[in-house]
């Protein structure tokens, strides 16, 4: 008996809910307006403690006053060779062949590359612009807030180097020569001794204040039937 009553009530509610629906054609849909959006956050962390420890919910620990007491953006490289960014250009090869007769490739290698970037909040909304024909057109809008800066934490690399190596197991990006070892630059200065071969380094730590919005839309969209939007 109870099942029949529940089923009857369900059918009545369904019929009542359906009664409020109205079909809209394309012309009617173009006249519909509304409001909405989303508040988003974004974090990118490479070769840091925060990147390797999934139990951490923030890039740092703070006290009740908002002061950082423990930072989770210290370098956490299991192997120095694994913490590299390497780029090879197709036309950059050396004339000398390796011991196996293979052509050797030049690599631009950034060694011990690491960093954390974080935005606590930015907004995604829809908006309307005037397109190239002077007609209204929908667009996506990203809004960045001045009080929610881009946090740049320990971003950079210890050295950049031009490395040479053949295809296969002896790729140039895996070269691990160190100043003062293995007969390489044995007269290196005390400052360089024990560090990887390279000619410069970079490290950035700070906040980038951003205020404004970015609108994304299709330039060729006219809103007409068949146009690509």
TrEMBL record:
Signal peptide: 1-19
Keywords in alphabetical order: Signal
Superkingdom, natural source: Bacteria
Descriptive protein name: Uncharacterized protein
Species annotation: Acinetobacter chinensis
